[in-house]
User: Fold this.
Amino acid sequence: MTLATLIFLTICAVTLAGGMVCLVARSLIHAALGLGAAMVGVAGLYLSLQADYLAAIQLIVYVGGVLVLILFGVMFSKDLQGKTQRPLVPTFVLGGLVTALVLVSALRLVGGVFTHASTQAVPLATLRSDPLTQPAAISGPFGTTLGDALLGPYLLPFMLVAVLLTVVLVGAVATVRRNIAGSDDA
Amino acid sequence: MPDLSSACHAVAAGISPDHLGPYLIVGAVLFALGVGVVVTRRNAVGFLMGLELILNAAALNFATYARFRPHGGELDGQVMTLFIIVLAAAEAAVALALLFAVFRTSGDIDLEQTVVLASPRAPEAARALGAARVLGEASSSSPSGNHA
Amino acid sequence: MTPAVFILAPLLTAAVLLAAGRRLPVAVHAWLAILVMAVCTALSVGQALHVCSSSEAQPLLSHLATWLILPGPHGPLALNLGLWVDPLAALMTVVVCLLATLVLVFTTWYLHGDRFERRFYWMFTFFCAAMLTVVLSDNLLLSFIGWELVGLGSYFLIGYWFDKPAAADDAHYQAMKAPGACGVIESRLSPAHAQLKAFVMNRVGDFGFLSAVAIVTWVAWAAGAASLRWDEVFSLVRDGAFDRVSFAGLSGTTLLTLAGLGILLGAIGKSAQFPLHTWLPDAMQGPTTASAIIHAATMVAAGVYLIARCYPMLTPDVLLTVQWIGAITCFLAATIACVQWDLKAVLAYSTISQLGFMLLGLGSGGDTGGYTAGISHLFTHAIFKCLLFLCAAAVIHACHEQQNLHRLGGLRRKMPFTALAAGLAVLAICGMPFFSGFYSKDAVLAAAWVAAQDGRWQHVVPLGLGLVTALLTAAYMTRWWLRLFAGTPRDVHAVDHAHDPWPRATVVLLLLALGTFQVVFTFNANPLASGPLDTLLTAPGPAAGHEMIELRHHAHGTVALLATVLMAIGMSFSILVFWWLPERRRIDAPGALARGFQPVWRFLAELWWLDKLYDRAVVNGLGQGIGRLLARLDLGSAERLAKLDAAPTGPATPTRLMTLISLDGLVDGVGRSVAALGRASVAAQNGRIGAYAAYACLAIAVVLVLLLLT
Assistant:
């Protein structure tokens, strides 16, 4: 086992450990921290997948945005320590069952990948023409940049997402505001 | 001088395994863990955490396939991942806003409570069902207290 | 002139009268029926003269129609509708038509003003058509058709007053009945019950008849007979076709005996023999004139007639059974008749007894003269029993529907002609020399005597029973006459306005009374002489040997003497007990007799407990038992059954299993299980968001598993 492999495995371990912590932690804060760890781990995995831009976005948006938001929500919740709330037993059973089912089937499905020729390793040499002579732009290793893709073939989804974000912004604010009349409408 | 991106690529090329198996496994396990959290967590925010885990796993899958295409050259997977991240953030915001609105005064977001959507004309019927929370009431009476 | 007119004319008349209904006045109904039957009588007399005097052995045949042709292994078998007129059939036709006409005339007086009067005439003519079908048919199948229709006609006529309440609810009956009356199940004594009882018991017998028809048809078909006509069937029997063919694994004599027993069962049902005799006394719920024709002269005679018809088919075993059934029945019924208080019931049991007598005669065998004797008794009995019933009708009508023997009396002063006619009939039935009954009874007993000459107990016992019955018959019939017409009336009010039915009815009575004399049948003043009937009605089959004829001659004289002595004993006993002692010596002899022999009296009055046994076992046990079981299966719970009965539920709770496996339970169960499923499904919609999220994840898991599996 080389150092490279060890590093990779460490990143995987961090991700999965974070997910485990999120699952089993009694305290919501701990769960949130676990989630954070998982997200960081995923960022690392993006890096190893040559998706450095995505790794950055993951860290900024997910860890820095979504996680913080969730932490806010956790803070507002009365039950930070998670002491008074345990899942009901039937829920435990159901949860365990579902998790196991999902795990098993997902792994089995994934296992099929190992034998499929079309997904065998692609040598890095074919991935890009010349890594060290590419323009110094934030780009993917495939000769086109992410920005080109977004403003090219994926222009429509990009615009829609922009609209969506606006709507979400307005809607979230509208949802939580109080009426002028002061009623408790949801 | 090689820029940051190239440096990262070089590092990545070093540590990454040369087939997508491990990534998919990590994605699958993360997905399963996320489902577990969704089902077991009693608190609504905990529920959201699980949801985020699931979305992360899906995004990871997309990124993996972006990297390991046999005749490479497309970035579609990464674009998908980007969108997933954006949408996950938006959804988290909306979800939290909703939770806030619904469970505003109680401050306790227990998913095991019975929540009933009442008709504005017959809120008593909903209360008769023993609902812990009744949504859509026209009155300003505070909802019933927490039920563990 | 085709014999079919005897069937078609009454049938057509019945149809016309039924269709006309209220449009025609009652008188037209009555006199049209009378006219048709009178014409039939005349024609039948002509036919009989023709058939009986012709020297040819072949009977008059008439083919009406072919119903079915069954292709068989040796040739087709045709199921025909045809007529067969031999001396037996011709004479029977005369009897039926003549009695029908006379009874119809009598009925115009008897049922005058009755609320249902029109119905009687079409039902009566329909019945006559059916009876004549049985008499004149040329094969078993057509006989069966007529047989069933006769049962239907009897059903109609018994239930004539269908709205009459049961005896238990009938104030008149309760007032009328003798104190200490028992035996009859009063809650089931009404025209509606009686007609059903008669029909159902006949049905039991018909099962036997139909089995016999099936066997005969099968053998005929398999052996290649051309049709089911009597001569064809009898030649099958003679040629041993029954040995060559097997039916359900049986063949030969066994099969033939089985068929014969089937015929006998049919006759037991129709002729009210033991054990299917209990319907006849109940049939007295119908109008007495109906009883006069059906339950005295014709319908019940159909059974005897059938046995006579199928005579060549009957094996010695069957004949022995016939004799025994006849003997048991005649004894049983005679004993019961001795203690009846209802004057019509006495006549009913007397009919049963005399029919048994006929079977006793028939069963004694052809060469002993039993065949001739049985049929002769059939004819003589038809006339004097019909007469007795009509006299009873006259008495009942005259005495304000009072039917209790013990309350009436002294009617001979008020109704002399009726008393005379009834007296002649009584003398005939008792077997007084110079009367028709003597001739035929003597013949029966002589035949039984000859049959018993071989000394075997199987033949001696029936003879003994027959002789005892002769004594009893004399006793109870004399009692009947004395109670009605002699002595002093006990219920003066009832007999106060009694008078002879005049003029039509009395003429009828006197005409019939003429038929009670022996000369009418033998054309010879000597009581011991034999008549044309003996030559006309010889048993089919080999003629009796010389020895047998000798035996018969000797038996004739011996038995005549014996029978007369027995009759005298019986009559004198009755005169003593029922007239001389009560009237002349003021001793209540009948009462003393009843009290002294209380257990015997009770046993007889309870009709040998047979009626009640049948009611308990068959009606309650079998009928209602099966009904309850089926209702239980259908409804699945005693509670629901009780609700239907509007009865209070008992402590028994049905098991769930019982509820489930019933029809109701199944149907309900479908609904209930759907409801249960719905309730179970509703539990999933509990308003808990966490639960809903869990369901979504469960769905994801299911999809993944499915992807995995496919």
Observations:
- Chain A touches chain B through 105 residues (CB under 8 Å).
- Residues 52-76 of chain A form the longest helix (25 residues).
- Chain A has seven helices and no strands.
